[in-house]
Task: inverse folding
């Protein structure tokens, strides 16, 4: 990483930010402008939006949850699924009337969708009231982009070139006060045939361990109780660093920080999941007993077509080792149903793997072609209706597994983090292995660790009670 280059660039953005304080104040009637940021997609997008919010606040903006009141609206988009893209187009379309009422409104679209040329062109041609379009590689230049948009009066599109740099020190406004995201790396080198992520987020680059640890210490000192380390493939952390550091080593170093907190991570790629990682998890109480390990499909032929670079047998090997080392381990996963060319018999191999592993929960998707990926050109003879039937079959299997697991938790005691109010008089808390428990308790307990006993399991919903200390 070129430290001088990144420092100079960030200094430039700080200077522009200072100018924007006066410019935006005057633009919006000698008052503090209101900014609205909405995030689609994964946790990495959430982390990016926290940077956007941090920079907006530095520009003199106040954040609002009401886009009707906003002077600046930013949609941070996701390109992973077609459904997410459709939602973006629908919601952007609804902004037309708002822009008509408020000509000074600045509407910006950013994120993964905007790194796709055909999407950026569609936005430019079909949504003329969108004033700013920018991709994932230029988030650090957000102040400059806003400055150019408001001072030139022109519509701007900037889809960045991945310069391979990591820009440390961008202002950050975290959404939570006790649960937080901590990015340890960016980009992806795996190029699964169905996935657009490497094309829109660039190649893998890892933050230096000292930068990650300094941020983690700051979060703990600020009262964060649940920290999630983020990367498209955290298990390949360390690429490009001067001093080779594995993800297992980094995870242990974070967990060794003094304080009462717990640490999670996502996402792990099975081809890089190591026994060393499992050992570190097993030996440290602060590391959650939860492993998100996407397998996508149970057929080796389909896995090869996906370019996943592991087999079902390799996947089961790491799962069995993890279960042997961490008896109370919770394993979650991603599954794609109906990959191009997949047969029903191959889909049944997925069902068998699900029954064998007994996942806590699954994130399931019917295959969605992404423009620019190899799989989008593969023959796909199975109709969507048939794939939907397969999906229903899968969900029934998983629901039964989840119900059995929840029933087996009744009477057991767990240390939980109370997270939010679910409804009047009921709070949601989360176990270390990432299972939500409903508790009858006061909202004063939100953000605290409590000991709870599971009293009831309704299918896959758990109820519990707080134990007297």
Result:
């Amino acid at each position: 990483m070129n430290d001088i280059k990144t420092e100079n660039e960030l200094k430039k953005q700080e200077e522009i930010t200072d100018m924007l304080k006066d410019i935006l104040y005057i633009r919006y009637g000698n008052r503090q402008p209101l900014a609205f940021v909405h995030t689609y997609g994964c946790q990495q997008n959430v982390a990016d939006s926290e940077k956007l919010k941090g920079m907006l606040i530095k520009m003199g903006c106040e954040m609002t949850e009401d886009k009707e009141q906003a002077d600046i609206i930013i949609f941070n988009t996701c390109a992973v699924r077609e459904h997410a893209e459709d939602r973006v187009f629908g919601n952007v379309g609804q902004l037309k009337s708002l822009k008509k009422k408020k000509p000074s409104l600045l509407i910006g679209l950013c994120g993964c969708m905007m790194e796709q040329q055909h999407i950026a062109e569609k936005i430019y041609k079909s949504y003329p009231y969108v004033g700013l379009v920018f991709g994932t590689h230029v988030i650090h230049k957000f102040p400059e982009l806003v400055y150019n948009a408001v001072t030139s009066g022109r519509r701007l599109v900037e889809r960045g070139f991945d310069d391979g740099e990591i820009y440390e020190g961008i202002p950050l406004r975290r959404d939570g006060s006790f649960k937080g995201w901590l990015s340890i790396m960016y980009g992806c080198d795996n190029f699964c045939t169905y996935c657009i992520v490497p094309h829109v987020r660039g190649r893998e680059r890892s933050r230096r361990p000292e930068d990650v640890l300094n941020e983690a210490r700051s979060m703990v000192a600020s009262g964060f109780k649940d920290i999630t380390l983020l990367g498209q493939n955290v298990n390949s952390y360390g690429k490009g660093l001067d001093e080779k550091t594995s993800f297992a080593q980094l995870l242990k170093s974070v967990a060794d920080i003094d304080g009462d907190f717990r640490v999670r991570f996502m996402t792990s790629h099975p081809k890089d999941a190591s026994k060393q990682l499992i050992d570190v998890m097993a030996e440290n109480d602060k590391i959650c007993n939860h492993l998100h390990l996407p397998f996508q499909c149970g057929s080796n032929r389909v896995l090869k077509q996906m370019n996943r670079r592991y087999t079902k047998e390799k996947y089961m090997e790491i799962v069995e080792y993890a279960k042997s080392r961490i008896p109370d381990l919770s394993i979650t996963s991603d599954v794609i149903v109906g990959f191009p060319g997949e047969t029903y018999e191959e889909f049944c191999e997925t069902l068998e793997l699900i029954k064998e592993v007994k996942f806590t929960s699954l994130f399931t998707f019917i295959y969605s072609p992404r423009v620019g990926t190899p799989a989008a050109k593969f023959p796909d003879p199975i109709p969507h209706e048939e794939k939907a039937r397969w999906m229903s079959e899968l969900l029934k299997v998983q629901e039964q597994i989840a119900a059995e697991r929840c029933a087996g938790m009744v009477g057991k005691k767990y240390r939980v983090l109370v997270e939010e109010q679910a409804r009047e008089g009921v709070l949601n808390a989360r176990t270390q292995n990432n299972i939500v428990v409903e508790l009858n308790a006061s909202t004063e307990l939100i953000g605290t660790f409590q000991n709870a006993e599971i009293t009831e399991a309704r299918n896959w919903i758990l109820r519990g009670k707080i134990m007297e200390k």
The two ends are 50 Å apart (CA to CA).
